[in-house]
Design a protein that fits this description.
With 354 residues, the chain is of the alpha/beta class. The protein has two domains: 150 residues, Rossmann fold (3-Layer(aba) Sandwich); 165 residues, Lactate dehydrogenase/glycoside hydrolase, family 4, C-terminal (L-2-Hydroxyisocaproate Dehydrogenase, Chain A, domain 2), CATH 3.90.110.10. The protein contains eleven helices and eleven strands. InterPro entries: L-lactate/malate_DH (IPR001557), Lactate/malate_DH_C (IPR022383), Lactate/malate_DH_N (IPR001236), Lactate_DH/Glyco_Ohase_4_C (IPR015955), Malate_DH_AS (IPR001252), Malate_DH_type1 (IPR010097), NAD(P)-bd_dom_sf (IPR036291).
Length: 354
């Protein structure tokens, strides 16, 4: 009888003191008695930078994902509020919040998938290269935490500039002796999402029926949509190719300018990140035929990192596909992309090695 009473009190306390807003010792209640142990079978996912413009909608979308059993939300500010808010959603994932560097270890311990949108957003007139000095240090610190707490987790890196932050993460992991190239994935899904949307507009079809491979990197001319390989098959005019390529490459700038100083592409990025995370979780579950584009360590080109189609599985990016046949326009674009990518990759590597 007393045990039943204690359990009921524990359940009530879990609502009055949401998991992640650390319960004080004086309450006499322990997390182990509450649902905070985990609700449903699934995977443990951490979002680092959960209180930001991308992090908040991403946290909501991951809370909605039935493959997530435990969701850790970390940031250096405002994560308790985001945690309380998201935790009220009636989905099965248990939400825990973590605030500040001293709680980073707890946020990361035992995670299967770590998603990193942390960093400052791009503002009007700011290039992705301008973001480097600020975001590079943030990514380095978070990846050092991953090394110590969940070295076998799959890492989805969103923080811009991705062309440089992925090499930074790789160098941190290499230094620690934990680097597994299959488990470090730069998220370029927004370029694919935009390409599918813009191409669908031209074709007059539903975007869910369109698949455009986007290779290269995740900034400006490094973003190379392979319109010759679009599904369903379609032959675009030269003007359509130029229009679509330019719009896909400059989609981020389109949003930054439209928001007129109020932010960057946060909602569409959160959608794309959640979509990509879902494919990673389905790969972890063992689903077959999961293929998406991502910026990964590869030998597809002479560059050490390159975005291309990968097959996702229990080990992460288990297979990297070749580019396939390119037309003259795409071959020209590829050379421009590689030139730009080479300097961005080197900048990331040098940041850690200096």
């Amino acid at each position: 009888m007393q045990t039943d009473c204690n359990q009921r009190l524990a359940r009530i306390a879990a609502h009055l003191h949401p998991p992640g807003l650390q319960m004080g010792e004086r309450s006499g209640l322990r997390r182990s008695e509450c649902r905070a142990k985990g609700g449903a079978p699934g995977f443990k996912v951490a979002v680092l930078g959960a209180a930001g413009g991308i992090g908040q909608p991403l946290a909501m979308l991951m809370k909605m994902n039935p493959l997530v059993s435990v969701l850790h939300l970390y940031d250096v500010v405002n994560s308790p509020g985001v945690t309380a808010d998201v935790s009220h959603m009636d989905t099965s994932a248990v939400v825990r919040g973590f605030l500040g560097k001293e709680q980073l270890e707890n946020a990361l311990t035992g995670m299967d998938l770590v998603i990193i949108p942390a960093g400052v957003p791009r503002k009007p007139g700011m290039t992705r290269d301008d973001l480097f000095n600020i975001n590079a240090g943030i990514v380095k610190t978070l990846c050092e935490g991953i090394v110590n707490c969940c070295p076998n987790a799959i890492v989805n890196l969103i923080s811009n500039p991705v062309n440089s932050t992925v090499p930074i993460a790789a160098e941190v992991f290499k230094k620690a002796g934990t680097f597994d190239p299959k488990r470090l994935l730069g998220v370029t899904m927004l370029d694919v999402v935009r390409a599918n949307t813009f191409v669908a507009e031209v074709l007059g079809v539903d975007p869910k029926d369109v698949d455009v491979p986007v290779v290269g990197g995740h900034a400006g001319v490094t973003i190379l949509p392979l319109l010759s390989q679009v599904k369903p098959q379609y032959t675009f005019t030269a003007d359509e190719v130029r229009y679509l390529t330019d719009r896909i490459q400059n989609g981020g700038t389109e949003v930054v300018e439209a928001k007129a100083g109020a932010g960057s592409a946060t909602l569409s990025m959160a959608f794309a990140a959640a979509k990509f995370a879902d494919t990673c979780l389905r790969g972890l579950r063992g689903d077959a035929g999961i293929v998406e584009c991502a910026f990964v360590a590869s030998q597809v080109t002479e560059l050490p990192f390159f975005a291309s189609k990968v097959r996702l599985g229990r080990g992460g990016a288990e297979e990297i596909y070749p580019l396939g046949p390119l037309n003259d326009y795409e071959r020209s674009g590829l050379e421009k992309a590689k030139k730009e990518l080479a300097s961005s990759i080197e900048k990331g590597i040098s940041f850690v090695r200096k």
